[in-house]
Write a structure and sequence with these properties.
CATH architecture: 2-Layer Sandwich
Number of helices: 2
Keywords: Metal-binding
Protein name: MerTP family mercury (Hg2+) permease, binding protein MerP
Strand content: 35-45%
Number of domains: 1
Shape: globular
Organism: Secundilactobacillus oryzae JCM 18671
InterPro entries: Heavy-metal-associated_CS, HMA_dom, HMA_dom_sf
GO molecular function, one term: metal ion binding
Distance between the termini: 11 Å
Order of helices and strands: EHEEHE
Helix content: 25-40%
């Protein structure tokens, strides 16, 4: 099942932070799309639930040294 994930982060302070987070999240198995919104301090991703979870993505970001304030998920209906 495909899921849309939105992770609210603490304020991002530099574009290189954004790039580092984008690369780390995109490199996870099961991540289909990823976008880091610098001004909103959010990460949006589409994932395959069979391969990863929103909690796994939050841990990846926290392991980089960024706080994840909130995690939202939404099931995506198959086309």
């Amino acid at each position: 099942m495909t899921q849309k994930v939105t992770l609210q982060l603490e304020d991002l302070t530099c574009p290189s932070c954004m790039t580092k987070i984008q690369s780390a999240v995109a490199g996870q198995a099961g991540v289909e799309t990823t976008k880091v919104l610098f001004n909103a301090s959010k990460v949006k991703a589409t994932i395959d639930e069979d391969q990863t979870t929103a909690e796994n993505l939050a841990k990846v970001i926290q392991d980089l040294g960024y706080d994840v304030l909130k995690v939202k998920t939404k099931e995506v209906e198959p086309a």
